[in-house]
Protein 1
Amino acid sequence: MSTQLPSTMESEVSNQADVESEVKPQMIYRCKKCRRIVASQDNIVSHERGEGQKCFKWKKRTGDATNGPPECSSIFVEPMKWMQAVEEGNVEQKLQCIGCNARLGSFNWAGMQCSCGAWVNPAFQLHKSRMDECRF
C-alpha cells in the first residue's frame, strides 16, 4: 500500500529542502601576520550596539559628533584553546597569536567597553585591524 502526499504538502517539503540547501558563506578570521585561523563566525559573541560617544567618560570622548551609529572596530569571541593567557588563569591579559606572537587583542573577565560604547562581560576582544576577514 503506497501513500501519496497531497500536492500542497509536496511543494512545502520541496521548499524546505531548498531553504536548507542554501548555505550562507561562513566567515573566518585569520591573523594578518601569519594567516593562522584565530576565530570563525561561530565563535563570535554578539552584543547590542552602544550609543557611541555618550557612553564614554569625558576623557575618552573625541568631540566628533557622528550622525550614524558607531562602527565596532573589534569582535568579541568566546574563550578558545589557543588563548594561552586564558588557559594560565589570568584575569586580564593581551591575546597573542599562537603562531607568530602578534598581538591580536585582549581579554578581561570583568568586561570591556567596545568602540561602539557597549559593555561586554566577560570580554575576549580581537581587533579587526589585526585580522583578515575571509569568506568561504
Protein 2
Amino acid sequence: MSKLPKAALSLKQFMLRQEVLKLYREIWRTTRLVPDQHSRRELREWARHDFKANRNQNDEVAIKMLMQSARRSLTELQTSLQLSGTNVNDI
C-alpha cells in the first residue's frame, strides 16, 4: 500500500504546475507596469478569472494550450507597454 495521499501529483504534473504558477506570477508582475490603475485592475481580474476557471483542468495537452494562449497574451501586453515607453525588462 502506497503512503502517498490520493491527491499527490506525479513529477510531470508537479513540473507543469510550477510552469503555470511561474507564468501567473510573470503576468502579475507585468500588470504592475500598466500606468492606468483601471486598466491594471481589469488585466488582473482577467488573469485571475482565467486561471481560476481552469484551476481543475487535468488534461496536460489542454493545460499546455492554455499556457500558450496566456504567453501570447502576455507577449502582446509587454509589447504594448514597450511601445508606450515602459521598460518591461525590469520585471
